[in-house]
Structure of Ribosome-recycling factor:
Amino acid sequence: MSSLQKARQRMESAIEALRRDFQSVRTGKANPALLDSVRVEAYGNLMPLNQVGTVSAPEPRMLTIQPWDKTQIKAIEKALRESDLGLNPSNDGNLVRIPIPALTEDRRREFVKMLHKMAEEARVAVRQVRKDANDEVKARQKDDGLSEDDIRREQGDVQKLTDQYVAKVEEMVKAKEAEVMEV
């Protein structure tokens, strides 16, 4: 596998990590991925919420959790209240309902700042891959006797790849920011 292919794979994984991070950011719409960070005290362990019940979004502003074990409803409610998501769950004995309140303007701006921070971390990860790939090319100059022209060409290819992935990060953050700011 060439250093360019390795760099492409690592940059792609940075984009995937950013995509997962963005899913956890709350927008005005209900999204089951919003609750991925919630851990529930169940059977003596802290477990991800999606391992103690089915999370769904039956309406645009409502999430529901159908626990597999009805005795876990109180633990699920407690975990949701203690999470930093600002949600207020209620239950009817069988189902936990979580209304998703509309975001205030200040809260939207906080989320946008958080998105920009996540995007910057992804850009840094992509640039780190570029540095590693360029170091590998320089090492091959010593080991394989690559010419200066070959090195410049390969480093140029790595830079083009880096520019593509940084542009992808920019597109993703613009789209998510528009989604968060949408009223």
